[in-house]
Amino acid sequence: MKEKFKGFILGCILMSMLMGTVAYAATTSTSIEVFFRDLKYKIDGLDKVPSAGKGFIYEGTTYVPLRFIGESLGKSVEWDGKTGTIWVGKKEGKHTELTSLKFARYDVEGSARMWTDAEEDGTLSVAGVNFQKGISGRVYNVTGPERKASIDYNLNGKYTKLTAIVGMDDASQNANATGTIRIIGDGKELKVISSLRGGDNPSNIEVDVANVLKLQIVFEADTNENNKVETLWIDFLEPKLFE
User: Fold this and answer.
1) Which of 68, 72, 149, 157 is the most exposed place for a label (fewest CB within 10 A)?
2) Which residue range is the domain that position 76 belongs to?
């Protein structure tokens, strides 16, 4: 039997499901009408029952307690009130997004191109997974300067670790050619990720950047072996610097 509940605050409901307490922000709340109902949950085929909070339906969409779902899947769920962030699973330490820094310079030749973040169609996509933050280099599998593009950042020795997700953008998912990303610190090659191919799942990387003053990320197309010129978009996604 449905239990009609009028005038609830959506923000309050979601917060109470996560924290077990009610929070109210008058400047951002909206009154809505929802329907609570007895929902059944099966996680990997097993029946699960929330210890607190109930699911509800709003405008045809079902909302369920985030903490219950996360912990049922073996993931911890934590609310960071200072930053307004919900952490599900591993919580990262303090970090700076690389693309939030002003780059020192970038080098491209001819029709090669570089961009930071999703500037054109709103997304960077690898194997069907969309990302909003990252650096993408457009290069060509030809002999010549258009095979490479690079971007530099002055880190000034402030960071110890760089993490990122790398892959071939779906804009080049059918290309036969493969690509490479090189991470260079103060002229020294720190990491090479090669044989990036369209349609492959993205990979997570971690790079030691302790004491690095200048960081350079190089996007490179592999040489042309079939005399067919192909455009490669190579993505360096969600890059984060840790102190």
Assistant:
1) 157
2) 3-88
